[in-house]
Amino acid sequence: MSLLEARGLSKRFGGLQAVHDLSFALAEGEMLGLIGPNGAGKTTAFNLLSGFLRPDAGSVSFRGRPLVGLKPHAICRLGLARTFQLVRPFPRMSALDNVKVGALARHAHPAAAAARAAAVLERVGLAGKQGVRAAGLTLAERKRLELARALATEPTLLLLDEVMAGLNPAETETMVQLIGRIHADGVSILLIEHNMRAVMALSHRILVLSFGERIAEGPPAAIANHPKVIEAYLGEEYVGTAPA
Amino acid sequence: MRWGGLAALLVLLALPAVLSSYAVTIFILIFFYAYLGQAWNIVGGYAGQLSAGHAAFVGVGGYTAAMLSNELGLTPWVGMFAGAALAAVLGGVIGYLGFRFGLRGFYFVLLTVAFAEVGRIAASNIDALGGALGLYITFTGDPRQFQFQDNRAYYYIALALLLLATGVAWAIERRRFGAYLAAIREDEGAAEALGVDTLRYKLLAMLVSSFLTGLGGTFYAFYLFSLQPNAVFGIPMSVEIILRPIVGGAGTLLGPILGSFILTPLGELSRFYFGQSGLYGAHLIAYGLLLIGVVLFLPEGAYPRLARALARRRARP
Amino acid sequence: MAVGLTLIFGVMRVINFAHGDMMVWGMYIALLLSRRAGLDPYVGFVISAVALFALGLAVQRGLVQRIVDAPHEMQILLMLGVALVLENAALMAFGPEPERVRSPLAASTIWLGPVFVDVGRLVTFGVAVLLTLLLWLFLFRTDLGRAIRAAADNPYGALVIGTDVRRVYATAFGIGAACVGAAGALVSPLLPFQPATGLSLSITSFNIVIIGGMGSLLGAFIGGLLVSVAESLGAVFLAPSLKELVSFSLLILILLFRPAGLFGKRAP
């Protein structure tokens, strides 16, 4: 049985069909990449899955439970956590307190949650930044903090929205390794990413969206040379010119 | 810190023995407004939901206890809880409507103001509640009726109320509830994504806050022996309540108390001096200027600044 | 009369607590001009507008501008502070008694076709419509006006294309205050006022702006009509002391059911 299954998801904003009839499944233990040009509806799809938006049509099931109609906090508690594309740390709270909020979802006692948060911070390489206010961290650190917060809710499935955007190559490499380790620890991952190298290296399978619709799906190697994908990214005239 | 707090408490307990009656009155007002500020702080400071209509809860609490006492002879010692419960019901309604319909920032401020003003107009127009003149309580000096000959009794009650509210805020701060409120204040959407039931916690904060504020309404009624709709439900009352935690430091435990120790004597002085020369708006102008000054120069409030300064001094050899 | 006023409120789309108090100051300036200089408010409104423009500019430049990056709550508190100062300064300067500005125009009436009309109301309405028209022309037909609308829609975008956003905001705020000042002076012969009138005027303006949708002309017009009809009906059927109840109840209903206005886009 798949861990996450979306069927016929659609969402319209005024005249814009942001997501149209999107269906896909994600198996337990899988790392699925979600790519597509800007405005393809990737983040909207995330918002539909995590309860921040209600779909106009379609259904989502997670571990066999329907999610549509549940609020984001309830979905989080079921084990589906997300990060935001533009990181949203609690700016005036320390790194530890930020992560503690996530940990409190599983450990009602603040001391237990703080211990758990410290462990998660260490795991993402922010052990030395516990007491620093989130507003005082670098972008790369804030991205890892965002990841740590989501991780602290002990998810079965993690939705990562462009966690590499804005990072330099060295920071990207660290992040790729970190995501690899989190996945190796048994967390399934759905990854929106613009960094092709990273998404190709990490994903088992890739789903391509364009104008809200699924245009291709398959293993990374097949996607890289898929004519529809090249067309979506580069425009029609480039089809056939890509190196084989 | 703990010893400092204990010492301060002992001093406050002993103080009425040496203070003049006028000074005791000032302290009563300091404690009382610090109490209301602390109650507001739970929803306005910790949870960051700016209510500008907390006067409504003072009004509902005070009117309920006064009516129960005047009409049914029920002692305010019991009536105050009935008043607080009714205030909490109103707080629940306002909170539920505001949070359920997603009113944030300015819109939530407006909603709370509108409810308080509706309360003020209603109280002014219901004859059974004394209309625009308000309710009066006959002075008997009977402690069982929450009435005391000696000002010092009110001093200790106001101090007890302040300790109660501060204890509640302290307990909230240390629990998951407090961490969740802080997360909501910082970024509601992100909090929701981390498993925080934002609607539920905001509502809880509103219930606790309005209950405590309603309790304060009874104190107000039986300290002044009168309730006037414009005074208890009006916007100036809401401003009095908000101002102290904001000046002292919203969302901090000691902020409302520090704010009240700064503001209440200032307010009383300006009311006293300008009031004598018939210039009634003066203390509100002073409040307005202070609000502007705090927003511009001290947005966190005085307490966080003071705490940092003290910590620096201590760190120095 | 109400329609003309509401148009101005609606187009300006600044909602802040100082709004009504600025209008009251427009009224008191008209009163001073009329008492001290014998200037009719239908002329004096120009001076009210200029004075309020300066006040608006000063508030924006000196106060609001300093905290544009601060949380939204801070701006609310700031304007609450400004409102407190304005209202109580009026209270100290002019006292709590209701005032009314005398104007020979306001006292006369004419037959307009089959209806008997106050000249004062007619002039107020006419000038209000004229001001709205001018404002509309300014916002939609001049470069500065376009810049104001652009900055309101997307301050960052406006900054990117080289707009001096600070100057634009200051001008917009000043013009908003000037309109309110002019409106205040224009209604001063018709509406008795006192310092406390500021709040109820603010509430009326919130009602109109919110129901009308922020910045939509049609919305402002229809919103203004609805609000004034409701308030007039309230005035007819309820005791005078209950009249305000209508405005506040209306505000609650509007907030709950249409936070972004009937014709406006959703507010962030």
Summarize the structure.
The complex is a heterotrimer of chains A (244), B (317) and C (268). Chain A is α/β, with parallel strands linked by helices and 244 residues long.
Radius of gyration of chain B: 19 Å
Helical proportion of chain C, percent range: over 70%
Number of strands of chain C: 2
User: Runs of chain C with pLDDT <50, length 5+?
Assistant: 261-268
Which key features would you list for this structure?
heterotrimer, B: 317 residues, mainly alpha, C: mainly alpha, two-stranded antiparallel ribbon, disordered C terminus
Overview of this protein structure:
The complex is a heterotrimer of chains A (244), B (317) and C (268). Chain A has nine helices and ten strands. Chain A is an alpha/beta fold and 244 residues long. Chain A has helices at residues 42-49, 72-78, 95-103, 110-123, 139-152, 169-184, 196-202, 220-224, 227-234, and strands spanning 2-13, 16-27, 31-35, 57-62, 65-66, 80-82, 157-161, 188-192, 205-210, 213-218. In chain A, helix 6 (169-184) links the parallel strand 7 and strand 8 (188-192). Chain A is globular and about 50 Å long. The model of chain A has no long low-confidence stretch (mean pLDDT 90). Chain B is mainly α and 317 residues long. Chain B has a domain at 20-234. Chain B has helices at 2-14, 21-46, 55-72, 76-100, 106-125, 151-174, 176-186, 188-193, 198-224, 229-233, 235-248, 255-276, 282-297, 302-315; strands spanning 135-136, 226-227. In chain B, strands 1-2 form a two-stranded antiparallel sheet. In chain B, helix 2 crosses helix 11 and helix 11 crosses helix 12. The longest helix of chain B has 27 residues, at 198-224. Helix content of chain C is 72%, strand content 3%. In chain C, helix 7 (143-153) packs across helix 9 and helix 10 runs parallel beside helix 12. Chain C has one domain (2-194). Chain C is mostly helical and 268 residues long. The radius of gyration of chain C is 18 Å and the shape is globular. Chain B binds chain C through residues 48, 50, 52, 97, 101-103, 105-107, 109-111, 114-115, 117-118, 121-122, 124-125, 132, 235, 239, 246, 279-282, 284-285, 287-292, 294-296, 299, and chain C through 15, 63, 66-67, 70, 72-74, 76-78, 80-92, 96, 195, 199, 203, 206, 210, 239, 241-242, 244-245, 248-249, 251-252, 255-257, 259, 267.
